[in-house]
Amino acid sequence: MLTKILLITLFLLFPLFLGYYTTFIALISIILGILTISWHFMEKEIGWVSFGHSVPFGIAAYLLALNPTLLFLTPFIFLIFLFFSFFGRRLFPFATFIASIALWNVSHYFVLNGKGGEEGFGVPFSMSLGNLYTLSMALLLFCYVFFEIISKSNLGLKIKAVRDDEIAAKSVGIDPIRFKIVGFFFSTTFASVAGVLHAVSFSHVSPSVFSPFYALFPFVVSKISFDKRWACIVGSFVIVSLSHSLSAFLPETHYILYSVVLMMIAVVKKNAENL
Amino acid sequence: MISEIFTSAFYTAFSISILLCYRVGKILNLSFASFFTLGAYLSILNPLLAIPFGASAGFILHKLTKKLSIANATIFSLGFAIAIEEILRIYFRTEYIILPVQKITLFGEMVVGSHAISGLISTAFVTIFLCFLLSKKSINLRVMEEDLELAEIYGVRTERLRLIVLTITGTLIAFLGSLHNPGIVYPTLGWQYLIFSVIIATLANIFERAYLFAILFAFVITCLPKFF
Amino acid sequence: MKILLEKNYRIILNFVDFKLEKGITLISGPNASGKSSLLKVLAGIFIPDMGKVFLDGKDITLLPPSERVKLGIVLAPERMKIALNLTVEDNLRFSDVEKAYEFFPELKKISKRRGKDLSGGERQMVVLARALAMDCRFLLLDEPFQGLHGDIRIRLIRIIKEISNRAAVAVVTHDEIEEVLKIAEKIYVLVSGKTKFSGNREEGEIVIKEMFL
């Protein structure tokens, strides 16, 4: 694991010595990398595929913009996912996706009718790009190490036992709800951290934080990274760079990639449970 | 109130289409969002173009998803929806297009002309569908809703029926998109209509007579706020 | 051609060679030997990984079950599988309803009751009535005696014998083996997805008695 961390650190440090625009693109990749790793934990370890990780991401961003003291609510965002989990594993991806799209639409009205302008709500404080980059990088590394350790710990094994078979886990004294809550809490908390960083880096929060770009980003990155946690960081850089570099010729290029990945995954995967 | 009744008919047809695809076609058809948008864009040229395009999109979706599980078919439909939206975005090369809106007076109330037509088409669709449900021919549909394998054992051509359902509903949604759009067309337009209809369909699906409850919920959600 | 069928990386049918001809064929074997899977391959529910299914020399391997029904291949599935939200009459409407009531007059009294309100035995009668009253050339009966009481079992054996005069009937059963053995013309014994025995009644009876009775 140490070699991996070292290589990731070197990979992340490199853009810091390039121009302002490149560093900014790398910053966005890092933030979305945190979002992807938090999503990856939810899919791989807890066994729930979310198509709405933009929900904790966007809500945290909005809370910061409205009033930073409201951020104390972020640890409770997992309750939204807990509610959707009652629909069952098969409907969970679509319930979370529809929730994110609903928030995307509702937040348009919220922005126009609330105190925000066309661009959304302004964020009350700012940081220099270098400081924000360093902070985001440190948080990404922490997020990576945290989920690596959790996955291999006793707690991680119990979470996996619940993922594999809730009834069997119950029979050996593991409370499925408790470990599901713990898993959801970790995943949504890191997604919220990514949302806060995103809001600070753009200095404003617009309804697009709930858009399909953020909702489906972790799924697509994770799949093109062959479900490897470390590769999710590289995948995040690839998608963000591709999207920005091609935007001059073909706007919203990432959506074309999204559609291809979604259709391919649906056809290639043999059954829904493996998604 | 006339306007609300037309909107309620529109949402009934939309949510019945979602229910039909889910219960018979075994797919939560998220492509409806882009079928609606496709229809709205085609109305710039000619609203009737939405019919062949909607039917083709429904047909293609059936062909590509017929062997997939519900979850995989739904994910595919999401990818398909995004693909259609991006094709529209690339082809029209603009964020949004404003369309002329013609208003007419109906029973002393000003309503958008195309919305009135979409309301009438939706009402016709719902009426025909309910008549079909009451007929003996609906038995194939009902057994398919319950169990695809059993329907095949009973001799029901499930693949053909699924093709019919996906094509007809695809045509309907695209055509409604060409008529019921708000006068501003943009690639993600269809999602708001889809979400509202999915909520109605989900509530209705709790009940055994889901299609009838879809009518009720669409009416309650769209018309009742008028009274308060 | 011999049939190979795999499910979840487990071999269910291991190159089984099976021929169904006019008369009664008993398919026997212990649990999980692939008997029901073989019927499902014939009915088109399972597509074999290797091997082909022929009907009158025509390859029907990829034909869906509904198309096979039109060709006269009818399956009465196991586990009392009927449409639970449809009434008894609606379930029977996929066959000749009047003929179905002739086989099981008991169903006429409960024709308006829905599948989910029936007892196990009543459900099994619906399964059988629908299959027996269809215009079949090949009748595939999977555990037909399940849930039925003595009188109806005897009646069912009589009906199967009648139908076997004009059609090929395959019976997979754990119950009433001795009774079915008396009327069967051909016997297949499957063990762990392989054909342990295939042949006439006399020899088959010895194998089955050694193994199960």
Portion of residues in beta strands of chain B equals: 5-15%
User: Portion of residues in helices of chain B?
Assistant: over 70%
User: How many separate domains of chain B?
Assistant: 1
Tell me the helix content of chain A.
over 70%
Counting structural domains of chain A, the number is: 1
End-to-end gap of chain A: 26 Å
Total of helices of chain A:
12
Instruction: Work out the radius of gyration of chain B.
Output: 17 Å
Give the largest chain-chain interface (CB within 8 Å): A-B, 31 and 29 residues
Structural class of chain A: mainly alpha
- Helix and strand composition category of chain B: mainly alpha
Query: Distance N terminus to C terminus of chain B?
Result: 13 Å
pLDDT averaged over residues of chain A:
84
Strand residues, percent of chain A: under 5%
Looking at how many chains there are and whether they match, the oligomeric state comes to heterotrimer
Strand order of the largest sheet of chain B: 1-4
The biggest sheet of chain B, with number of strands, parallel, antiparallel or mixed sense and barrel status, is:
2 strands, antiparallel
Write the layout of secondary structure elements.
The complex is a heterotrimer of chains A (275), B (228) and C (213).
Chain A: H1 2-13, H2 20-46, H3 54-66, H4 78-85, H5 92-113, E1 121-122, H6 129-152, H7 154-164, H8 166-171, H9 176-202, E2 204-205, H10 212-224, H11 229-246, H12 253-268
Chain B: H1 2-23, H2 32-42, H3 50-65, H4 70-92, E1 97-98, E2 103-106, E3 109-112, H5 113-134, H6 139-146, H7 148-153, H8 158-180, E4 184-185, H9 190-205, H10 210-223
Antiparallel strand pairs in B: 1-4, 2-3
Helix pairs in contact in B: 1-5, 1-8, 1-9, 1-10, 2-3, 2-4, 2-8, 2-9, 3-8, 5-8, 9-10
Chain C: E1 3-7, E2 10-16, E3 23-28, H1 35-43, E4 54-55, E5 58-59, H2 65-70, E6 73-76, H3 88-92, H4 97-103, H5 106-109, H6 120-132, E7 138-142, H7 150-163, E8 168-172, H8 177-183, E9 186-191, E10 194-200, H9 201-211
Parallel strand pairs in C: 3-8, 3-9, 6-7, 7-8
Antiparallel strand pairs in C: 1-2, 4-5, 9-10
Question: How would you portray this structure in words?
Answer:
The complex is a heterotrimer of chains A (275), B (228) and C (213). Chain A has helices spanning 2-13, 20-46, 54-66, 78-85, 92-113, 129-152, 154-164, 166-171, 176-202, 212-224, 229-246, 253-268, and strands at 121-122, 204-205. By secondary structure, chain A is an all-alpha fold. Chain A has one domain (2-212). In chain A, helix 2 (20-46) runs parallel beside helix 6 and helix 6 packs across helix 7 (154-164). Chain A starts with a helix and ends in a 7-residue tail after the last helix. Chain B has helices at 2-23, 32-42, 50-65, 70-92, 113-134, 139-146, 148-153, 158-180, 190-205, 210-223; strands spanning 97-98, 103-106, 109-112, 184-185. In chain B, a hairpin with a 2-residue loop joins strand 2 (103-106) and strand 3. In chain B, helix 5 (113-134) runs antiparallel to helix 8 (158-180). The longest helix of chain B is centred in the middle third of the chain and has 23 residues, at 70-92. By secondary structure, chain C is of the alpha/beta class. Chain C has nine helices and ten strands. Chain C has a six-stranded mixed β-sheet with strand order 6-7-8-3-9-10, with helices on both faces. Chain C has a two-stranded antiparallel ribbon with strand order 1-2. A two-stranded antiparallel sheet of chain C has the order 4-5. The longest helix of chain C has 14 residues, at 150-163. Chains in contact: A-B, B-C. At the A-B interface, helix 5 and helix 12 of A face helix 4 and helix 9 of B.
